[in-house]
Amino acid sequence: MTEFTPRIFSGIKPSGGVTLGNYLGAIKRWVDMQGPDFQTIYCAVDLHAITVWQDPAALRNGTREIAAALIASGIDPERSILFNQSQVSAHAELAWIFNCVARVGWMNRMTQFKEKAGKNAEAVSLGLYAYPALMAADILAYHATHVPVGEDQKQHVELTRDIAAKFNNDYKVDFFPLTEPVIEGPATRVMNLRDGTKKMSKSGESDMERINMTDDADTIAKKFRKARTDPAPLPDTLDELKDRPEARNLVDIYAGLSDSTPQAVLSDYAGAGWGKFKPALADLAVAKLSPISTEMSRLMSDPSEIDRVLARGAERAKALAEPILARTYGIVGLVG
Ligand code: AQP
């Protein structure tokens, strides 16, 4: 069996402003994973963003905003490789190979496609359908061994493993690793503030359903104050939150922001009503997010410096991905 270098890859789509869901489910954990155990590679996945319509100016701005959010949250562009996907063509090239490895039946089982396409499946882009093959290429172009993601991306990482296994098996090689999803922490699925059964998303209809990393203190307080809850106070045990998704979500967010656990939050707030808990949660969110948003605006005031950081990251990413792509072409039998 090949020994693969411990390497992390993860990405985030510039399809709107960065949300608290992206922060707690992904970015905060990416920051913690920088260190001696792994080489870390983080990416603004702009090619994924265009699977649904993006205004070009908003896409450019969103890509830079993701870079700013990552750096402001603690991603160090020297220790980690930070870039945007479209600058490294190996992603798109390897995705084509994987389009030819993945089976249509596998894609048909992807719940995110079903949710996003809804009743409109005939009219959405072919790219939205093929998205998981590009995501497999993002990961496997670096032989990444671990992918820290939110709960919503688990099925796509499992598909990445299926693609790697089929490629290895079809070509009788031990070339691609079977990448592990890393889904950890109290807030791996942050829910919509107006409907606790839906995920908090960048592109959700109403701005009131999400916290954006750029929201100011008043907006954060207002959004939590208006967040949907139920009349009951907070209970003693997590079990009692089983059928209270909105309440559970706010407890999970508190735990994520305070590096605590949902049970520890309940131990502190058992018996408290929303009149006490919501302002405490808003204060905590402002304390954690406002230094990040201040630093984001500073970074965003110099877009050319962000572009330089992304270009430098792309060069480092290419140095890893291009040899892996060339070996893949060789295995497949493409002459070059
Ligand atoms: N609500 C969430 N809770 C926890 N983790 C989340 N992630 C996204 N939403 C939540 C994690 O953030 C990383 C980047 O996600 P993405 O931007 O690439 O894609 P997404 O999951 O489709 O994000 P959105 O916000 O829902 O975007 P739109 O609305 O454009 O589709 C991933 O690790 C993801 O798990």
Largest sheet at a glance? 3 strands, parallel
End-to-end C-alpha gap: 28 Å
Category from helices, strands and their pairing: mainly alpha
Average of pLDDT: 96
**What is the strand content?**
5-15%
Shape: globular
Subunit organisation of the chains: single chain
Would you write up a description of this structure?
By secondary structure, this protein is mainly α. The protein has 13 helices and seven strands. The protein has a three-stranded parallel sheet with strand order 1-2-3. Residues 11-13, 15-16, 19, 21-22, 25-26, 45, 149-150, 152-153, 188-190, 199-203 line the site of adenosine-5'-tetraphosphate. Adenosine-5'-tetraphosphate binds at residues 11-13, 15-16, 19, 21-22, 25-26, 45, 149-150, 152-153, 188-190, 199-203.
Briefly say what this structure is.
53% of the residues lie in helices and 9% in strands.
